[in-house]
Design goal:
about 75% helix, rod-shaped
Length: about 170
């Protein structure tokens, strides 16, 4: 499957451990709720609007298009409710659409921030580990230098034997 196909992306989302996290689950539930509200709103608005004078929403396909426009806040103005009941349904579809897009946007932001924080933690651990290893190497080198200076000091003071060892 190509990496940008919807089936591939859905498989990656559902197969990922992040699926178990609340924000992803909330996005999925909100999106399913939006789909339900779009379909129900389209189905319910037709009886209110079909018989009204100057109505533009007169069939289910037109109502479905209107509902998608309304939920996504596009609102081209080609279809709009003229009855009070239709306007109440429009308000519900609008509020649900805005809410769902807000939840999905917040979930994406949470995912990006969480990924960045995870990378930052890993980087900090790597820096800390490198610093500890560097300190251990420096301590070992310092001990070796102390040992060499001690040998030189013993050779110079004559405690270690003849001065001929110093020339080596």
């Amino acid at each position: 499957m190509p990496p940008l196909s919807p089936v591939y992306l859905l498989h990656k989302l559902l197969g990922n451990e992040r699926w178990r996290q609340h924000h992803v689950r909330a996005s999925a539930v909100a999106t399913a709720g939006l789909l339900l509200v779009v379909l129900l709103g389209s189905w319910i608005i037709v009886p209110y609007e079909a018989s009204a004078p100057d109505a533009t929403i007169t069939s289910f396909p037109r109502a479905l298009w209107w509902s998608v426009e309304t939920a996504t806040t596009v609102g081209y103005g080609d279809l709009y409710p003229v009855t009070t009941g239709g306007r109440v349904i429009a308000g519900v579809v609008m509020l649900v659409g805005i809410s769902v897009f807000s939840v999905v946007t917040a979930s994406l932001a949470t995912w990006f921030v969480g990924s960045a924080a995870h990378r930052a933690r890993r980087m900090a651990q790597a820096v800390e580990h490198t610093g500890e290893r560097g300190k251990a190497d420096a301590d070992q080198e310092l001990r070796a230098l102390h040992a060499r200076f001690d040998r030189l000091e013993h050779l110079i003071t004559g405690e270690g034997g003849s001065g001929s060892e110093l020339r080596r």
